[in-house]
Amino acid sequence: MPTSFLRIQGIRKVKMNNTETNQDVILIGAGIMSATLGTLLKELAPDWNIKVFEKLSKTGEESSNEWNNAGTGHAALCELNYTVEKPDGSVDISKAIKINEQFQVSMQFWSYLVKQKLIGNPQDFIMPIPHMSFVQGDDNVRFLWNRFKALSNNPLFKGMEFSEDPEKLKKWIPLMIQERDSDEPIAATKIDSGTDVNFGALTRKLFGHLENQNVQVNYQHSVEGIKRTSDGMWEVKVINLVSGHITHHKAKFVFIGGGGGSLHLLQKTGIPESKNIGGFPVSGLFMVCKNPDVIAQHHGKVYGKAKVGAPPMSVPHLDTRYIDNQKSLLFGPFAGFSPKFLKTGSMFDLVTSVKPDNLLTMLAAGAKNIPLTKYLIQQVMLTKEQRLEELREFIPNAKSEDWDLVVAGQRVQVIKDTEDGKGTLQFGTEIVTSADGTIAGLLGASPGASTAVQVMLEIIEKCFPDHVGEWNAKIKEMIPSYGLSLMENPKLLREVHTSTAETLGLTEKKIPVFS
C-alpha cells in the first residue's frame, strides 16, 4: 500500500487506511458535555461500546477548565440578564425559572453519582457560596426590587433577601461597601443556596469513572473528517497527533462536543441542520486577586448589570472561587477578540467557518451587531488601569499590585436565521441534531456546563427515542424530578434540595475554612 505524507498542524502525518471496530457511540471532545453524555449512557446502556477522541493531552482543558469559566452554578439566582424588565416595569422571570429547574437536574445527577460511589469527594468540584446581585442608581435599584418581588414569591428562589441598607450591605459584602464615598443609591439581593462549581474537576472525575467502565479515551487524537457511509453509519477520520497515523472509526451515533470547534465538525457532516449557522468568537479575561487579606474579606458571587452593547457573557461579577482547595477571588470578565474558536485553536477558525450557505447569515449578523463590535474593540484596547477602574465600581479601594490578569476561555456565539430575522446572534446553548438522530452537536455558551445534564437528556430523547421508554425508570432513579416541574411540586422540590445539599456537602456545617 502506498504511503503518502501530509503536513497538518506542524506534524508529519502518515496516512493509514485503517478502519477499527464499529462503535455504538463516538464522543468528540473530552469536556463536561461529552463526560455527562457518556456517563448517562453508561448508566442507561452499560453494554454499549463508547469511544472518545480528544485533541489535547488531558480532559477538560478547554471551556470546562476551571480557569476558563466563571465557575458559577448557574441557577439564575444572581444573573440579572436572565430576568428581563418589561415596559410596564414588571419583570419576566420565565427564563430564570427554566435555568433554575435545569440546574436542579444537574444537582440531582451529581448527587446520584456520589451516592452510588461512582465519583467521590464532591467538595472537590462543588462548594456552597451565596449568590448576590448588586446594582447602583435609582433605576437599577427599582429594577432589582421588582425582580426580587417576582422571584421571592417562587419556591425555586425561597430564601432570597433584598436590602438597600448600607449597614446590612456591609455585613453581606464588606469589601465592596467600605470606603464607598458616593451618595448614589445601591442595593443587593442575597440567597445562600448558590454554588461554586469546578467544572474542570468534575469533568476529570467523570472521565475517570468512564475509563473504569472500559470507555476508551484517546488523547491527542484530532477528528479531521466525518462522513455518512452506505450502511447508514458515521465514519470519523482521526489523526493521532503524536504518531501521525490516520485511522477511521465507525459508529451508529456521534456526539460533537468540541466546544467552539464543534461548528467546523458539524459543517463537515453535511447534514441540512448544519446549514445557515455561523459563529462569532468572543474571548474572556479575568482579574485574579493575589492578596490573601483581600480574598478573606469577600465571600460570595456578586453579579452586576452588563454595560450597553455588551454580550450577556460579559456581565461583571466579583467571584469567590474554590480552586485546588484554595479560596480565590476573581473579577471580570473583560471581553476580547480572537479569530480562534478554541483557546488552542487556529487563527483561521473564523475565516474557514464562513461557507456559501452561511455567508449572508454572517454578513447580516455583522450589520446588526455594530454596537457589539464597538464594545469588543473598546475592551481589547483597555489598559490595566482602565480595567482597575471597572473593578473599583465593585471594590472602591482596589489596588493594582493586588491583581493579575488571566486569559480565560474562548466562547463562540451562535449566529443563525430566526423569526427575528437573518443573522441573529444567540447567547444560549444550542443543540443541533440530524433528522434521524444519528448525530448531534452542541454550540453556544452560557449557561452551558451548569445545565449539561438537562441538555444531554434532551439529546438522548431526540436521538434514542426507541430506548427512552425502557430507560425511563432508570432516569427517574438518577433524577427524581425527571418529567416534572419542581416549581409545581413544592414537596418534591424540598426533598430534592435537602437530599442534594446533604449528599454534595452543601449544608452550612460542612463549609470548610480556607486561609
TrEMBL record:
Record's protein name: Probable malate:quinone oxidoreductase
UniProt entry tagged with the keyword Magnesium: no
EC nos: 1.1.5.4
Molecular function GO labels: (S)-2-hydroxyglutarate dehydrogenase activity; L-malate dehydrogenase (quinone) activity
EC class of the enzyme, as a word: oxidoreductase
Pathway named in the protein's UniProt entry: Carbohydrate metabolism; tricarboxylic acid cycle; oxaloacetate from (S)-malate (quinone route): step 1/1
Catalytic activity: (S)-malate + a quinone = a quinol + oxaloacetate
Keyword Flavoprotein: yes
Taxonomy, superkingdom: Bacteria
Source organism: Mesobacillus persicus
